Amino acid sequence: MADDKKDFVSQLQGRTKQFVLRSIRVFKALPPTEEARVVGKQFLRSASSVGANYRAVCRARSRNEFFAKMSVTVEEADESLFWMEIISEAGILPSEKLKALMDEAEELIKILSKARKNAK
């Protein structure tokens, strides 16, 4: 059972890191307009925070710290999804270019929220 938990944590660390790397590629693909720059920076901050904060979750020293850091991670994943919706709905990038990453954000939110709930 302990190995299953380690595998899960390791896989989720990999997924959150890949989420950040994929988000960087989306940011690089944004057009050189003022609105894309402003919205893109907000998106990149929240997306990169998902990976960094999940890494901090894995180092939590108590259940309360775990819950607090996991809550931040969920919030940042949700904020990333919000900014992708804005990028799409504002016509900055076509939704087809964002769909896979948006799907991953939704999956991460579900997984992280469930882990947070189980920590209560």
Automatic annotation (TrEMBL):
<dbReference type="InterPro" id="IPR012657">
    <property type="entry name" value="23S_rRNA-intervening_sequence"/>
</dbReference>
<protein>
    <submittedName>
        <fullName>Four helix bundle protein</fullName>
    </submittedName>
</protein>
<dbReference type="Pfam" id="PF05635">
    <property type="entry name" value="23S_rRNA_IVP"/>
</dbReference>
<dbReference type="InterPro" id="IPR036583">
    <property type="entry name" value="23S_rRNA_IVS_sf"/>
</dbReference>
